[in-house]
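Input structure tokens:
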């Protein structure tokens, strides 16, 4: 079969089955019926408390809280660090809607920072804007880590607290430090398309005792916080329990039971994602008109999606590539689209936030094409996908 006639028949949204160990754990919860995290038998430790304890140990954090979603974790982190209505919060121009949405949900105002061609936050623009807020919600968008050492130097010097959105970087690291461990809080998603799958779910980690206590009460612990295994001492809760509202968003034992075996297998899954990512990356490298996003040596990434750039192409030519690849079974998302499509939107789509002029981001976003890399794809699938993209980009570029 020639490259020009290949059709890919895989499904870009099909995940692997839930592991047998996780199914067995979920069945045990269903059989005893105690799904609520605080509904335990005498002497029993809940699945959710055990998940928190295990994830804290896995990341090296002192405290961990399991919640209903990654977006809920982000909003809870903002409340716990003291963000008030009307406050400014710095964040990436290149991210997904739950990040500015969490800022808006607490009545704060996003201040967008430019994106570079490496798809990370522009640290020069951050340095220029860092005095405009006291909190940065840093989105490691699509798994790309910036120079975290320099970012923390900028933020520490300005007394800006960093909340890390690690929805796409569970299992990643920068210079040996796990994603989520640079800032004061790390927030993770366990939604179906992330690195562990409970349908929905989120995890929040921190070393700050008072912040962890506030987040726990915010999540809906009532006065049952002593049933947490990765939480501060009771005296910390005594200081905050009467002035911290309950905004219930707990994780339940069923989702926790599904997640615990998956987290134990995370390193192996990361290696499998990166095998697939690297096959696609090598297949695209050298395509005329296409820019591969090079990964820095200090970064350990998780290749659960891949992005490439058609920089300075006209909108109609980028759309032509998307459409031609789509006809051959390869689903690409374009971040330059003027209207939100499914999960894809851009900073000027979020009209609850003040629109800022971001010319560098506009140029980069107009060229970003994005694709999921599910573990249900074989390495041969990935090679075929790369051939199809290379062929269609080459055809459109040659005709331009």
């Amino acid at each position: 079969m020639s490259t020009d006639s290949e059709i890919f028949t895989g499904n870009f949204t099909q995940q692997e089955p839930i592991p047998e160990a996780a199914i067995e754990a979920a069945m045990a919860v269903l059989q005893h019926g105690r799904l609520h995290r605080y509904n335990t038998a005498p002497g029993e430790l809940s699945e959710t408390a055990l998940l928190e304890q295990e994830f804290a140990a896995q990341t090296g954090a002192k405290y961990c809280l399991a919640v209903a979603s990654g977006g809920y974790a982000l909003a809870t982190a903002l409340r716990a660090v003291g963000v008030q209505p009307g406050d400014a919060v710095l964040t990436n121009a290149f991210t997904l809607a739950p990040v500015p949405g969490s800022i808006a949900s607490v009545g704060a105002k996003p201040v967008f920072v430019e994106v570079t061609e490496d798809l990370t936050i522009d640290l020069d623009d951050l340095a220029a804007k860092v005095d405009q807020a006291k909190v940065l919600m840093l989105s490691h968008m699509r798994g790309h880590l910036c120079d975290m050492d320099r970012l923390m130097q900028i933020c520490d010097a300005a007394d800006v607290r960093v909340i890390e959105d690690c929805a796409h970087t569970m299992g990643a690291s920068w210079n040996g430090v796990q994603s989520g461990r640079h800032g004061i809080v790390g927030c993770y998603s366990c939604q179906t398309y992330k690195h562990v799958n409970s349908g929905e779910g989120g995890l929040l980690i921190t070393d700050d005792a008072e912040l962890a206590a506030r987040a726990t009460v915010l999540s809906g612990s009532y006065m049952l916080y002593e049933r947490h295994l990765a939480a501060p001492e009771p005296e910390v809760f005594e200081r905050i329990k009467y002035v911290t509202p309950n905004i219930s968003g707990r994780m339940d034992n069923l989702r926790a039971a599904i997640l615990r075996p998956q987290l134990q297998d995370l390193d192996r899954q990361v290696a499998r994602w990166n095998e697939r990512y690297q096959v696609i990356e090598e297949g695209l490298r050298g395509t005329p008109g296409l820019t591969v996003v090079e990964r820095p040596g200090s970064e350990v990434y998780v290749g659960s999606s891949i992005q490439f750039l058609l920089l300075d192409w006209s909108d109609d030519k980028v759309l032509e590539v998307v459409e031609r690849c789509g006809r051959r079974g390869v689903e690409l998302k374009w971040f330059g689209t003027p209207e939100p499509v499914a999960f894809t939107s851009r900073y000027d789509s979020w009209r609850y936030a003040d629109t800022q002029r971001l010319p560098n981001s506009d140029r980069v976003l107009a060229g970003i094409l994005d694709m999921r890399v599910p573990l249900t794809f074989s390495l041969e699938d990935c090679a075929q996908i790369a051939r199809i993209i290379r062929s269609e980009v080459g055809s459109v570029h040659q005709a331009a």
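DSSP finds 13 helices and 14 strands in the chain. The first strand starts at residue 63 and ends at 67.
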